[in-house]
Write a structure and sequence with these properties.
With about 450 residues, the chain is of the alpha/beta class. It contains 15 helices and 18 strands. The chain folds into 2 domains: about 260 residues, Aconitase, domain 3 (2-Layer Sandwich); about 160 residues, 2-Layer Sandwich (Aconitase, domain 3), CATH 3.30.499.10. The longest helix has 17 residues. It holds the Pfam family Aconitase.
C-alpha cells in the first residue's frame, strides 16, 4: 500500500483508524473556536444537543473571541457579545475580549494550536492553523455546537492537492502572491473539499507568518484544509511566541510515495507579484496587468495579512512619506498584541504620521461590517482574502486583493503600483523574519 499524506496521518491518529482519502471517520478534536457572529448559533446547537444535562466536553479547548463586530457597531452585535461572554463564564470556556484580536491570530499567539492537532472553528478561515502543521478546518455552527458537547466530529478524509515551489522567491514576491497564483491557476473551486498541501524549498524557507497566509486562503479555492509540513521553524516560533515546548513527530510529513490528486510545480524565480481583480480571488494576474488603476482606499489587515510583520512592511515603505492625496489607508491589526508591538516599535507612529487611520484589532471592514466599509463606486486594494461583490461594503464597490508590499506601494501613489518599484533591504528583512508579538 502506498504512503500517506499529512492529512491522512492526522485523521488516522485522531480517529484511531488507518484511514485514507475518501474514508469517513469520527475524529477527536483538539481545539474548537467560535466568535461573536457564529458563537451564538453554536451555543443554540449545543443547548439543543445537551438538553438539561449541559457540560462542555473540553472547556480548556473551547475558545470564543469577539472580533467581527468589535467594538459593537449596533445593539444586535452588543447582545451577541453578551451571549458569548455569559456562556463562556458559565461553562468555563476561554473567552477573549474586544481588541484581543481575530480568532485565528489569538489561537496561534496564545499557544492553543500545535503541529499535528485537529482544529475546528465556525469560521471558514480556520484553515489558517495548517501553517503550523495542524489540520484546521471551518465547520457550520451546528457542527461546532455538537463538537462542544462531544469533543468529536465526523469527517470525510480529503484528497490532497500539492503545490510545490522550488528555488528562491524574487524580491517583492511573498506568500500572498503565491496563494493568489495558486488560486488563479486551479480556480475558486479547484480544490473543493481537498487539502492544499504546500511544499518545496521556497515554502520551507518561508517564515511562519507567511506560511499562515498560504493555509488561510486554501478555502478560497474550495479547500477543506491547507497545510505546510511542520519543521524546526515551527518549534522555534511556538517556543518564542507562546512559551511552548513542542516536539514534532518525525513521521508527521507526507510520505514520498503518498498519493496526490494533482501536483502543481513552480520555479520561484519565474513568479511575480499578483493582484486578484474584482470580484473573485481566482481573478489573479501579474501586477503589471493592473498597474495604474486608481484606488480610493487601501486596507491592510484581516486574518490573512494583519500580523505585525505585514504592517511593518507598510510602515517601512511609508516612513517619512505621505499617503497619496485622495486615498484612504485603513490599518487594522489582527490582535491587541500586534497593536501593542506596533506602538512599542514606532510602527503606529510612522503610519499615523503618513496619514493612515490605525484602528483597534479585529476583522474591521473585511466582511463589510464597519471600520471602513466601501461606498458606491469605491475602489479598494486590500490585503484581505475575499473580494466578492459587496464583500467590503457597497455592491457597486470594487476590491482588488494583494500583498502588504503591493498595498504599501499603492498607498504611496494612489494607484495600483508594482511593489518592486519601492523595494528596500530593510523592507525585505522585516518581511522575511519571524518577529512574533509575545504577550
Amino acid at each position: 500500500m502506498t504512503g500517506k499524506t499529512i492529512t491522512e496521518k492526522i485523521l488516522s491518529d485522531h480517529s484511531g483508524e488507518d484511514v485514507r482519502a475518501g474514508d469517513y471517520v469520527e475524529a477527536r478534536v483538539d481545539e474548537m473556536i467560535g466568535h461573536d457572529v457564529t458563537g451564538p448559533l453554536a451555543i443554540d446547537a449545543f443547548e439543543d444537543v445537551t438538553g438539561e444535562d449541559r457540560e462542555l466536553a473540553a472547556p480548556d479547548s473551547t475558545v470564543f473571541t469577539i472580533d467581527h463586530h468589535a467594538p459593537a457597531d449596533g445593539v444586535k452585535a452588543a447582545n451577541n457579545h453578551n451571549i458569548v461572554r455569559a456562556f463562556a463564564e458559565k461553562y468555563g470556556a476561554h473567552q477573549y475580549e474586544i481588541n484581543d484580536g481575530i480568532c485565528h491570530q489569538v489561537m496561534i499567539e496564545e499557544g492553543f494550536v500545535e503541529p499535528g492537532d485537529l482544529v475546528v472553528g465556525a469560521d471558514s478561515h480556520s484553515t489558517t492553523y495548517g501553517g503550523l502543521g495542524a489540520f484546521g478546518t471551518g465547520v457550520g455552527s451546528t457542527d461546532l455546537g455538537t463538537t462542544f458537547a462531544t469533543g468529536e466530529l465526523w469527517f470525510r478524509v480529503p484528497e490532497t492537492i500539492r503545490f510545490e515551489v522550488h528555488g528562491d522567491l524574487p524580491k517583492g514576491v511573498y506568500a500572498k502572491d503565491l496563494i493568489l497564483k495558486f488560486i488563479g491557476d486551479v480556480g475558486f473551486d479547484g480544490a473543493t473539499y481537498k487539502t492544499a498541501e504546500y511544499a518545496g524549498s521556497a515554502i520551507a524557507d518561508l517564515p511562519i507568518h507567511q506560511r499562515l497566509v498560504l493555509a488561510n486562503m486554501a478555502i478560497e479555492m474550495g479547500g477543506k484544509a491547507g497545510i505546510v509540513e511542520p519543521d524546526d521553524r515551527v518549534v522555534d516560533y511556538l517556543e518564542h511566541q507562546a512559551d511552548l515546548e513542542v516536539s514534532i513527530d518525525p513521521d508527521l510529513a507526507s510520505d514520498d510515495d503518498a498519493t496526490y490528486e494533482a501536483v502543481h510545480s513552480y520555479e520561484g524565480a519565474d513568479l511575480e507579484p499578483q493582484v486578484a481583480k474584482p470580484s473573485n480571488p481566482e481573478n489573479a494576474v501579474g501586477v503589471d496587468d493592473v498597474v495604474g488603476i486608481d484606488v480610493d482606499q487601501v486596507f491592510v489587515g484581516t486574518c490573512t495579512n494583519g500580523r505585525y510583520e505585514d504592517i511593518r512592511v507598510v510602515a517601512d515603505a511609508l516612513e517619512g512619506e505621505q499617503v497619496a492625496p485622495g486615498t484612504r489607508l485603513i490599518v487594522v491589526p489582527a490582535s491587541g498584541a500586534v497593536y501593542e508591538k506596533c506602538l512599542e516599535t514606532g510602527v503606529l507612529e510612522a503610519l499615523v504620521a503618513a496619514g493612515a487611520t490605525f484602528q483597534s484589532a479585529g476583522c474591521g471592514p473585511c466582511a463589510g461590517y464597519h471600520q471602513g466599509v466601501l461606498g458606491d463606486d469605491d475602489v479598494c486594494l486590500a490585503t484581505a482574502n475575499r473580494n466578492f461583490p459587496g464583500r467590503e461594503g457597497s455592491m457597486d464597490s470594487r476590491v482588488y486583493l494583494a500583498s502588504p508590499a503591493t498595498a504599501a506601494a499603492t498607498a504611496l501613489y494612489g494607484e495600483i503600483t508594482d511593489p518592486r518599484e519601492i523595494e528596500t533591504e530593510r523592507y525585505d528583512d522585516h518581511a522575511t523574519a519571524d518577529l512574533g508579538v509575545v504577550r
